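EI: anyone free to look at a 220-residue chain?
SC: sure, send it
EI:
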Amino acid sequence: MDFLKHKKQYFVLIDESGTLPDVRDRFVTITGVGLREMKKGKNLISQTLKSLRREKNKIKEVKFYYAGDRTKRRVLSGMVSAEFEIFTVIIDKKGRKISDTPENFALLAGELISEINLWNRERSLKIIIDRHFFKKDDERNFNKFLEKNIKRNASFSIQHIDSQQNFIVNLADFAAGAILAKYNKNNFQFYDIIKESILLEKIINWPELKRKSLEYKKIP
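SC: here you go
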């Protein structure tokens, strides 16, 4: 009997905020929102959309960047009320312009997923990530590099979804946006709403992250 197949699932929505190539972004964050039931996440998105329609707002995409302050507070407070768990890794780029490649992005995601796995060893991680690469070859390479950068004892599956088609992954975008505002702009307004729900807030610089990836590759 394969024990891993019988683990309960823990759903993790993942998105990043900030960009690797832009030297103006000192920090980049990749953030996961953990749910034991996907229904709660879908309900929160549904309620947000209804509120936006009642307010006659044009809905391009339910994103932190496009949202007004009231919507940001509504979504972030909703995550806290629903007892979602937030995990974030903040990368200090040290002034570098970093190529946005499948391998480099997999370093970010791998660091986050490895940390989340430490909190949820009794559950199998169902990773739902905002589609970062739209070429299938890039997505396959990302998945390949990701497996190399995650600790061997992690049990997980991964699904890439388009946030314009499936808004639920944007819950992670809201959390990531609130966290990045703290680091890049010293703005705690939205971070303070979710801070008690953050189980992991880890800062790592880019050279250290690269060194860790090389160490993982040496493990037989």
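EI: The longest strand covers residues 8-17.
SC: 👍
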